[in-house]
Amino acid sequence: MAYIKTRGVVVREVAAGDYDKILTVLSDELGKISVSARGVRRSGNRFSAGTQVLSYCEWVLYQGKNTYILNSCEIIHPFYEIRQDLTLLAYAAHLLEMAQDAILENQPARDPLTLLLHGLHALTNKNKNPELIIRVFSLKLVQIMGFTPYLMGCCKCGTKEIDEIYFSFEHCGFICESCHNNAGDDVLRIEPGTARALIYVICAEIREVFGFELSEEALRNFSETVDKYCGDRLEKKYCRHLFLKELQ
Ligand SMILES: [Zn+2]
After folding, report:
1. Is 160 exposed, middle or buried (0-12, 13-18, 19+ CB in 10 A)?
2. How far, in Å, from the CA of 225 to the mean position of ligand 1?
3. Edge-to-edge, what's the strand order for the sheet holding 173-175?
4. Which is the CATH superfamily of the domain at 3-78?
5. Average of pLDDT values for 131-136?
6. I need a surface site. Which of 105, 115, 199, 222 has the fewest CB within 10 A?
7. What's the gap in Å between 157 CA and the centre of ligand 1?
């Protein structure tokens, strides 16, 4: 039997039978895959930790009829810090849901997986604001999917000299003050800090993308821009983190 080796994160687990699980794994080589993990809910099973949501493992699988079958898995990173904190878990669920929607079945997904892992690591850093992390993650993910906003000047008239920057959701990028006057309602005024943050995320390498902070005020403006831009691209609202506001 030919074994397949791949690295990936468990994003979903469903109990099956008396002792089994069906996992959804986002993997570097195979994209989104279903893995049938037999016997892993028996007490003392040596793969029970690796087959939980958030576990990043090296997987050894073989091809079954409808799913991949687990042969073995070795944990590379368990993200324990996230599991132990309800707030972080909600933010992580938001990242997992978006990644799951963006990654296709049986297509290599190295960049989105790398982004997910850096995002999860960033969540475990107590000095980082998770509200910023989920927006940076969303914007970079949407860029990886092929939707890059135009931020190098005004996307209507082309000028690079912009005093007051606006973001046009219709034109998917910055517009200048004079173009904004005829642009309709689908625009948002962009603070200088937000403009710098948007440009940074689009230009940065994935491993560096979470490496900045924003003031509370700039974060509000940045979040509003990213949420609307990404929501329009993905045609979906991601609400898992919103219940956190009710908890606080
Ligand atoms: Zn213009």
Report:
1. exposed
2. 19
3. 173-175, 166-168, 187-189
4. Nucleic acid-binding proteins (2.40.50.140)
5. 96
6. 105
7. 4
Length of the chain: 248
Q: Could you tell me the distance, in angstroms and rounded to a whole number, from the CA of residue 186 to the centre of ligand 1?
A: 15
Question: How far is ligand 1, taken at its centre, from the CA of residue 192, in Å?
Answer: 17
CA pair distance 220, 132, nearest whole angstrom: 9
193 alpha carbon to ligand 1 midpoint, in Å? Answer: 20
Per-residue pLDDT tens for 6-36? 999 999 999 999 999 999 999 999 999 999 9
Q: How far apart are CA 196 and CA 147, in angstroms?
A: 19
State the first-to-last Cα distance of the chain, in angstroms, to the nearest integer.
52
Per-domain residue ranges for the chain?
3-78, 81-148+184-247
Return the SS3 of 5. Answer: strand
